[in-house]
Amino acid sequence: MRKCDVAVIGLGLMGSAALDALLDSGVDALGFDPVGPGSNRGSSHGSCRIFRRFNFENSNYTALSDEAHAGWMRLQNDHGKTILTPTPVLEAGLPGSRMVAASRAATIGKGLPDPVLTPAEANRRFPAFDLPDGWDVVVQDGGAILRTEVVMEIMRARAGDRVITEAAQFEPRQDGVSIRTANDAFFAERAILALGPWLGRALPKLGSLLRITRQAVGWFRPARPASVEFGRLPIFILERGPNDVVYGFPNFESRGVKAAPHNHGPAVGPDDWDPPATDRELGPVSEALATLVPGAAGPIVDRDVCLYTNTPAADRRPDQGEEFIIDRWPDTRLVVCSACSGHGAKFAPAIGQRLARLATDPTFEAEPFFRLSRYSAF
């Protein structure tokens, strides 16, 4: 039986970042995942995510973004591969948009200039847009395209033979965690579970708090290609109404404009990745582009599906839901990570550090808004 101090089960962005932090600290750690870089399954698949320094979801996230940015830059400087491609982030919504107001407040709260633009100013600066008069608009610096595929390759290479490319079953014991793959048995003093949409299956009590939704993603052949190239089109997040948010990227891969709804799709299971996104699912995105970003509008040329794993609003420490769970699992030597809800990827280095400390430092606790104790079930 092979032994280690800490096992990390699930090596998407969060698990890989945790394993990287452990190994970087000299901890005897192993990672387990049958899925490798380049797969089209798992919460971290695909080439890119949005990095935002100023976050409308939670006023505490700006400090977390700064910590994560430092981690991404260390990794980028160490390996000489581009991980963060800086680009502005335009956020816009109907008059009185809470999303835009919260993003603006996060910026001003850091002592920076007010990021507000009028729709006319935004349309002149970024000619792909046709934002209506009266809309609320901010344009943030500190944004970037996060090259997730590059990150996954770097982290997997850094871990080397500490990665076991097999599915792992675990069993908590009083003195640690037993782990079995198809070919071997392992024992870890502690284990971090970073299983994305499969976490609720592994821990049914937690599964009752998690809702997995199917999220359609499309790439669109732009009507005005020059207006959507990198450097001319920012990352954008557009709030057209309650539960009607569309986000998108400039055409930085010569693949078209990537755009998708951020509102939750239908509930699905953790293995429900097929079929590919349909024209009907992407219809609201096509409509939003045609109305608000006509330079990016055009036929769908590629499509994908992501799964969000969403947390509900807490009842003991009120929040709006869609917060992460980063905590120790009660009465075991397990640490759980459900850093999801469609906006966790950018924080991976900071979350990885927290997971590593939860597994190795008994005095460390994650922030209260990440803990299981915010739910009465725990």
From TrEMBL:
It comes from Bradyrhizobium jicamae. It comes from the Bacteria. The keyword Oxidoreductase applies. This is FAD-dependent oxidoreductase. Its cofactor is FAD. The keyword Cell inner membrane does not apply. Signal peptide: none annotated. Pfam families: DAO. PANTHER family: FAD DEPENDENT OXIDOREDUCTASE DOMAIN-CONTAINING PROTEIN, PEROXISOMAL SARCOSINE OXIDASE. Keywords: FAD, Flavoprotein, Oxidoreductase. SUPFAM superfamilies: FAD-linked reductases, C-terminal domain, FAD/NAD(P)-binding domain. The lineage of its organism: Bacteria, Pseudomonadati, Pseudomonadota, Alphaproteobacteria, Hyphomicrobiales.
